[in-house]
Amino acid sequence: MKCKLLFVLLLNTLVLAAQKVPLMINGANNTMHLLHTVQAKENWYSVGRLYNIGPKDMAAFNNTSIDKALAIGQPLKVPLTTVNFSQNNSKEADEVFVPVYHVVQEKEWMYRISTNYNKVPVETIEKWNNISKDNAKAGTRLIIGYLKVKNNQSDLAKYSKAVPADVVVKEEKKETAPPPIVKEEKKVAPPPVLEEKKPEPIKTEEPRIVPKPADKNPVIDKNGGFFIKEYAEVGKAINGTAGIFKSNSGWSDTKYYALMNNVPTGTIIKVSSEASGKAVYAKVLGGLPDMKESAGLTIRLSDAAASILGAATGKFFVAIKY
Fold first, then answer.
1. What is the SS3 assignment for 149?
2. Is 215 helix (H, G, I), strand (E, B) or coil?
3. Cα atoms in the 13 Å half-sphere on the side-chain side of 226
4. Contact between 246 and 220 (Cβ < 8 Å)
5. Gap between the Cα atoms of 54 and 48, Å rounded
6. Of all helices (H) and strands (E), which one includes residue 305?
7. What percentage of the chain reaches a pLDDT higher than 70?
8. Top-confidence residue, 218 or 74
9. What are residue 280's phi and psi, to 5 degrees?
10. DSSP string for 69-90
11. Least confident window among 169-173, 233-237, 266-270
């Protein structure tokens, strides 16, 4: 009995060593990742549950596929995305935070650290670590964000740590700061709107008539849709063939969606059609489904988005940026 207990303790020690706790960040911005060494009986799905990341996304990040089995001792890069990494206290109810660290290098300023890791505010890093920037000497280990793991699925959950309350309050203030700017812009807008309505009273009736036939694309948003305000281009672009899937969204709320491989879920992308000269901003819901209809496709767009681009059925060529 004692030998069995010692064996279990030794096995747990080896697994934790493979997880490299505390978690140390590698890469920067879009290439941020953790390192994991594959252990016996581990596969793409068990490692994915450990770090709360889809196995396909992790395989793509390692330039391979889940069809290739993992080998004991194989090093894996675990991507840190909006799905499993938080720098703004955002998480699901069944998730907990595990700190992710960066070690300060010689002559490395806090501003550079902030820039390398999604421009997380320097003041937030100071709050997380209870430190001032003057004390961030070479060799100092700093929390740079938090891995989000499922409390009942990941062994890493035992290393969870609460985010300081004052950081949460501060970030909430930052999220509420933009509205005043929007309100100021709207104050300038009303005069021309009122002037247009007075000389052209007929136009005020047209929007009421158009939305009625829902099957005739009642809403056409010249600005590209609801998600344009969340779009942040990082310099990636790809051209390819697009397909269409049916969705109730977009026709009235201008919320357009897309399915695309190798792009993190939740990413806002700009999709343009050279044929029509139009563009829409769509949110990625996940990868392309494993089916014959996906062969040769780069992306699938909701039917409302495809309609804006001038495509009602079939396949069409698009340019994608994000």
1. strand
2. helix
3. 13
4. no
5. 6
6. helix 303-308
7. 75
8. 74
9. -135, 160
10. PP-TT-EEEEE--TTTEESSS-
11. 169-173
pTM of the model: 0.48
In the prediction, which pLDDT does 291 show?
84
Tokens for 181, please give them. 């700017």
Q: Token match 């991507």: residue?
A: 79
Burial of 264 (C-beta count, 10 Å sphere; 0-12/13-18/19+):
buried
Q: How far apart are the C-alpha atoms of 245 and 183, rounded to whole Å?
A: 36
Answer whether the bond into residue 22 is a cis peptide, omega within 30°: yes
**AA letter at 312:** A
| CB contact at 8 A, 67 and 78 | no
Q: Is the CB of residue 306 less than 8 Å from the CB of residue 312?
A: yes
Q: Are 84 and 95 contacting, i.e. CB atoms less than 8 angstroms apart?
A: no
SS3 238: strand
CA 214 to chain centre: 31
CA end-to-end span of the chain, whole Å? 57
Number of C-beta neighbours around residue 96 at 10 A = 21
Strand partners, 79: 33
- Angle in degrees, CA 82, 147, 162, rounded to 5: 120
Question: For strand 75-79 and strand 33-37, is the pairing parallel, antiparallel, or unpaired?
Answer: antiparallel
What distance in Å separates the CA atoms of residue 151 and residue 131, rounded to the nearest whole number? 29
**Could you tell me how many helices (H) and strands (E) the chain has, helices first?**
10, 12
The pLDDT of residue 192 is 55
**DSSP state at residue 270:** E
Q: What H or E segment, with its residue span, contains residue 282?
A: strand 278-286
Domains and CATH numbers, the chain: 18-172 (no CATH), 221-321 (2.40.40.10)
Residue 247 one-letter amino acid: S
Q: Which token pair is 299? A: 């992306």
Q: Within 10 A of 260 (CB to CB), how many other CB atoms are there?
A: 26
Closest CA to 51 of 68, 69, 41, 38: 38
